[in-house]
């Protein structure tokens, strides 16, 4: 079992300077903030990292910087996914694994492949990857759902497919995966507001967006759930629901980047086609932050 993927992981934002370049100083401070606050592992360049708007050269620089700055203090996962299978295979083959323990790869988006197409996509990736693979099912972004049957088929056919990050929101789907999965295959929550119920069902943890700004709360919630202390976990679950909603009301990561700006971690700069949140949402975020502080 991938013990490194138990508990609380965070999908790191990519901080930008006012001119749109990557702000490595802030990224370094954000990494330290995560580690010091009890996060179990970090995901570099997932969806929250605005990876789709980074060049390949920028991605390599961010991965290298992250590995060097972390300096083996915490496990690292790299996000490498897309809808051009052969291109993803080549990226994975050429990935400098550095100190990364796994690759998170999103189910192909836009093309709307069949379940067989999704299976063959991940088969090609699994056969090429030097690292274990975490599947990532997020139908709200990809336009297609990876069925539990496809997830289980992949988990059983490829030993290096070790987990799935599930953001379908379907508890029926989660239940099927938990019922039919190989013993060591991990179900990971991909949605902050349902981490507690998913972990109560048997999920291994969360890959969180909120954790960027509130890592102590997210890591505490995940650790309490792992200990079976759901009464204390429920308190964190309920008190963070509104700030989680505000993180997503105008798109991710615009909301969480504004929270980070208010906490002194860079600016709320995002790359087009994303834009910063509205003044109305900024005020709502500030109001909720004053309650959570």
Question: Can you characterise this structure?
Answer:
The chain is of the alpha/beta class and 293 residues long. The chain has one domain (3-228): Aldolase class I (TIM Barrel), CATH 3.20.20. 46% of the residues lie in helices and 13% in strands. The protein has twelve helices and eight strands. It has helices spanning 24-36, 56-70, 85-93, 115-128, 139-142, 148-157, 171-180, 195-201, 215-226, 230-248, 254-262, 279-292, and strands at residues 7-11, 41-44, 76-79, 100-106, 133-137, 161-166, 186-189, 205-208. The chain is globular, with a radius of gyration of 18 Å. The model has no long low-confidence stretch (mean pLDDT 97).
Mean pLDDT, as a whole number? 97
CATH class: Alpha Beta
The CATH homologous superfamily is named Aldolase class I
* Alpha-carbon Rg, integer: 18 Å
Task: Report the sheet-strand fraction.
Answer: 5-15%
Contiguous low-pLDDT stretches (5 residues minimum) are: none
Alpha carbon gap, first and last residue: 37 Å
> What is the β-strand count?
8
CATH topology: TIM Barrel
Helical/strand content category = alpha/beta
Site (Part of a proton relay during catalysis): 47, 110
Function: Catalyzes the condensation of (S)-aspartate-beta-semialdehyde [(S)-ASA] and pyruvate to 4-hydroxy-tetrahydrodipicolinate (HTPA).
Binding site for pyruvate: 48, 207
Catalytic activity: L-aspartate 4-semialdehyde + pyruvate = (2S,4S)-4-hydroxy-2,3,4,5-tetrahydrodipicolinate + H2O + H(+)
């Amino acid at each position: 079992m991938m013990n490194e993927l138990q508990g609380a992981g965070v999908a790191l934002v990519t901080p930008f300077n006012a001119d749109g370049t990557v702000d490595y100083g802030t990224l370094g401070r954000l990494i330290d903030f995560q580690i010091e606050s009890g996060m179990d592992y970090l995901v570099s360049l997932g969806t929250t990292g605005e990876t789709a708007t980074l060049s390949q050269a920028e991605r390599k620089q961010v991965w290298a910087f992250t590995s060097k700055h972390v300096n083996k203090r915490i496990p690292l996962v790299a996000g490498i996914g897309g809808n051009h299978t052969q291109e993803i295979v080549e990226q994975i083959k050429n990935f400098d694994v550095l100190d990364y323990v796994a690759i998170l790869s999103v189910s192909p988006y836009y093309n709307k492949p069949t379940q067989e197409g999704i299976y063959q996509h991940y088969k090609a990736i699994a056969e090429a990857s030097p690292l274990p693979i975490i599947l990532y099912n997020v139908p709200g972004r990809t336009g297609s759902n990876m069925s539990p049957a496809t997830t289980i088929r992949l988990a059983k056919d490829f030993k290096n497919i070790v987990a799935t990050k599930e953001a379908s929101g379907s508890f029926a789907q989660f239940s099927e995966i938990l019922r039919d999965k190989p013993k060591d295959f991990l179900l990971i929550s991909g949605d902050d507001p349902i981490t507690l119920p998913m972990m109560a069902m048997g999920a291994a943890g969360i890959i969180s967006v909120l954790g960027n700004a509130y890592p102590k709360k997210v890591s505490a919630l995940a650790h309490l759930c792992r200990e079976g202390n759901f009464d204390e976990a429920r308190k964190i679950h309920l008190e963070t629901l509104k700030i989680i909603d505000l993180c997503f009301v105008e798109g991710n990561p615009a909301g969480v980047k504004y929270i980070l700006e208010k906490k002194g971690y860079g600016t709320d700069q995002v790359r087009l086609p994303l834009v910063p949140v509205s003044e109305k949402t900024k005020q709502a975020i500030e109001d909720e932050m004053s309650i959570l502080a």
